[in-house]
Structure prediction request, 289 residues.
Amino acid sequence: MKKAFIQLHIAIFLAGFTAILGKLITLNEGLLVWYRMWITGVTLAIILLFTKELVRLPLKDAFTNFGVGAIVALHWVCFYGSIKYSNVSVALICFSAIGFFTAFLEPIIMKRRIDIIELLLGLIVIAGIYLIFDFYPQFKTGIIFGILSALFGSLFPVLNKNLLKKYSARTVTLYEMFGGVMILMFIIPFYLKQFPAAYFFPTAKDWLWLLILAWLCTVLTFILALNALKKISAFTVNLAYNFEPVYGILMAFVIFKENEHLGRGFYFGLSLIVLAVVLQMVRVRNLKI
Prediction:
């Protein structure tokens, strides 16, 4: 259990850095995610080929993995859309709604009763997001993208729990990446009509950030998080990921000076979210979930 929490914490720290990279990469969010998933999938395929761990899944399981990968892709597109239509700090705060959605969706998918404490903690997070929305209406589009990102983000950890009972974290990630690439090939032409791209091919700087995003913040982060998910509940993983905004926001303050444009509403909302995370982590430790 201790090892799982350490792996989860490292994954969360790296995940916090993905928001910074999303700001640095100037590609449209749909194209950014397509390149990210393509690079990640190819990298994992090469690694598994050389380690002789490349597994051909039965058709049914392959399509299940592809389906989860499609959800991951939609989550990332919404997440980076939130960053580009608001800023890093607001996008990361909206992502915190993942705990609220998980409190509803995990019991339905896993066929168990809704945990009232989980639901209440999720509502505290929603209250924090509402404060930010109320103080910063100019970020409306970014906040909507952020809420959708949290909705999609709450689904794939729950669905991954069943997949991880049969296959390794790297195999699951590999198939999910290519599933995401395929769904984006169909979606992007329609998406770009609503959210046009300034250009379609990465610049030299974009390639640098994309490789860091794919190799360090995706391959390594996914494997660490999925390994932790074998020992820890999906709700706990999702709620612990609310520390991602803390890391990402601190980095955004240092790199982009976003603190100069944020007032008390943001900090009130952030305080509620941190409170919910701390309460859940204490609860988990006491219950030894």
